[in-house]
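ERR on first pass: missing label on line 2. Operator R.T. fixed the label and resubmitted. Corrected input:
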Amino acid sequence: MDDLYKDEILEHYRNPHNFGTLEAPTTAKEGANPLCGDRITLMLGIGDDGTVNDVAFTGRGCAISQASASMLTDEIKGKPLSEIAHLGRQDVLDNLGIEISPARMKCAMLSLETLRAAVGDRVEWTGQTDEV
Amino acid sequence: MAIVRPLDPVAVRADFAIFERDFNGRRLAYLDSAATSLKPRVVTDAMAEYLNRYSANVHRGIYQIGEEATAAYEGARAKIAAFIGASDPREIVMVRNATEAINLVAYAWGRRNIGTADTIVVTEMEHHSNLIPWQMLTQEKDADLEFVPFDDDGRLIQDSFDVLLRTRPKLVAFTAVSNGIGTINPVADMVARAHDAGALVLIDGAQATPHEPVNVQELDCDFFVFSGHKMLGPPGSGALWARRELLEEMPPFMGGGEMIREVHLRHTTYNEVPFKFEAGTPDVSAAIGLGAAIDYLTDIGLEHVRAHERELVEYALDILPREVPSIRIHGPLSASDRAGIITFNLADAHPHDVATLLDREAIAVRAGHHCTMPLHQRLGEEASARASFYVYTDRDDIDRLAEALQKVERLFARPAPH
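pass 2 clean. output:
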């Protein structure tokens, strides 16, 4: 049982990075997984040059969804939207580094889907986010 | 069949091929029977027999296998009628599941009988299938939908029900047993009070029919619905029972073949009940499978099923709080009015993580809202985990559950590495 949830995931779940809110976000988006009740609110501070200078999220849900959001916010901080737009499912799975069953895939992808929706009107998303 | 009385779950398991499967060296601990039950070989054999040896349509063929198919299909209807104490098989409408049965009533009875300012009363613990059809109907008709609340122990607040009955509702629709938290509701008593207030009563029997003796005449309800797949039968089988005179008055649900008597280009006269409500070729194999499941359950005895599950609930309510300190169990904490459903949360682990980790131990539980989102809003939980029992469940399954939950607790309580 123990090998499934690596320490790294549990650590992100217990002490999520970038957890909180931004005072004046450039954009904010709420994402929910109605089947599970997982939810996150993602806030981004985007500079004029299109760089994500600041990012924060709040949320509730399972370890997979919350650790995934914690890792994703680490990943995008300080990066330009043009680079972020390449992020896809595999990047999220690589970050988590564990086997995600089909039934839990929506939990893992909630933060990526929310990010894509948050910046959808600013950048054309090129990463593979749909199920192949 | 290797059944001895009282119910011996180990002997029962020998009748189910799924228990021969190896799950990483373990036997499956299937604790999700409230979602759907497993199927014994007698059920799948009966279905295969029909599909392989006499797979004709029903009520049509003037040849041997057509007559055999019709006899088997109508035989299943008679078994269903006897199983729930209906006096007449013509009061049984074959449907795909309880959801379809409720939608049939909402559409055929509801659209004719519910008008502006009429009231329908349901409860806050309903499965979505006994909520959304009534939302749709009352929104369409500009009628009122009211809700009996439940208390912190998961029991319906009967004083509130009485207050709602003073509004003289046209229909009261509620579940006999909560799929969300296992509460066994006082059905006969509530039906009597609803009738005194002039309402008709629909009982959602999806969680009761598989687990305890049911008699619609003793309950004295007006509509009763259940699904076959939760009672050892196949998906696609289920029934609506309604009092004959109600079925006679109701217009059809779906139009098509079978439900007609005489068709002209611009008008049609309809078949007699129950065929008026069974448009199109039915799922014959599913009905036959449900008939075989009813034979199997009748052989065990529903009173033995209930006694067995009650004993398991007592055991689970005793050991889980002791062995799993962070568990919160929702619903009544007494086995006398609780079905074989234990819904819970752990303090530090989300239900989805719990279910995923239990799956690693070949333990299947449900995680989520179990199609009862309003009930979970009342509980104040986004989601919960649910272990539910049936004829093949034993104390060993519950011991495995407790042990695995201890592991989950340890894993999620482990201090952070820095």
